[in-house]
Amino acid sequence: MIRVEDLQVTFDNRMNKKQKVAVIEGINLQIKEGEIIAIVGESGCGKTTLGKAIVGINKPSRGKILFNGKNIHSIKGKEFKDYRLSVQMVHQDSFAALNPNRTIFQSLSLPLMQHKIAKNEKEAYGILEQYFEEVGLTPCEQYFYKYPHQLSGGQRQRVLLARALSVKPKVIVADEPVSMVDVSLRISLINLMAKMNQKYNISFVYITHDLATARYVAKNGRLVVMYLGKMIEINNIHQAIDDPKHPYFHALIAAVPDNTLLEDNEGVESLPLRTLDMPSIINPPSGCRFHTRCPYFTQKCETEEPLLRNYKGGLVACHYAEEVEAKRKSK
Prior knowledge:
Layout: E1 2-13, E2 16-31, E3 36-40, H1 47-54, E4 62-67, E5 70-71, H2 77-86, E6 87-90, H3 104-114, H4 121-134, H5 141-144, H6 153-166, E7 171-175, H7 183-200, E8 203-208, H8 211-217, E9 222-227, E10 230-236, H9 237-242, H10 247-254, H11 299-303, E11 309-311, E12 314-316, H12 321-330
Parallel strand pairs: 3-8, 3-9, 6-7, 7-8
Antiparallel strand pairs: 1-2, 1-4, 4-5, 9-10, 10-12, 11-12
Helix pairs in contact: 3-4, 4-6, 6-7
Organism: Candidatus Epulonipiscium fishelsonii
Keywords: ATP-binding, Nucleotide-binding
Protein name: Peptide ABC transporter ATP-binding protein
């Protein structure tokens, strides 16, 4: 359905306007109908930039994004509008995503009428009532005529999900949707997304730094691990977390305070890094971008960039994945 090919997105360096910074590059990804993909990585790795590129907000400086075989930045007019309706985004900051000067009903009904999904406010009311019931905001009258600041963070996130669902999308990109919500409400929101995936066959791209929620959301899907603008590991989510292939992902899992991520009781041993300092995306390391921190570093890692390659059912960008796995399992 959606295919990302050799994608690069650059921005101006705020400190040096003449310099372009590649926030993500060399991204190749396919999103299939009805699947859930979790994209994980530390802050600044480029996962939100990738999400915004998929929905058409960030324009590629190289590469392309294909939707049903068509480049989304080559289509115009109604075709591009249809794409923007088909691929929706649920933002991390629910307060910033809603107009503070409009009631919830005003914010959500206007797009429905503009895109001719509803002929008038009465039709818009009926459509929104259905989806508010779906996301657990009932009776809808309690929420329609309130302003964003009058709702809790969890309620606003449900409003954003209802807004996305109301245009009947094929894909929803959810960027850290539960990170600003009380812990007690996170599971209910995650379950809600899983329910929408199953009921409407909507594909979800779930962006997060939280491996536990990634595993819960994408329990039947894939995991994409990013580091400094690059994809470094892609696999079935259970296999990826229980048996990480890339040293960075191994270190990331080992850093989780407990082993509730893991299906077995053995856990993943800690991996002592060469340094805890993350390099700058403005001036990334040569070769493998993780080599400055990797305990398995060799000269080849500094001079040659590893490409994603097939390894034991997944993809990994590491020159020494076999050797690293053998050393880890021999301990």
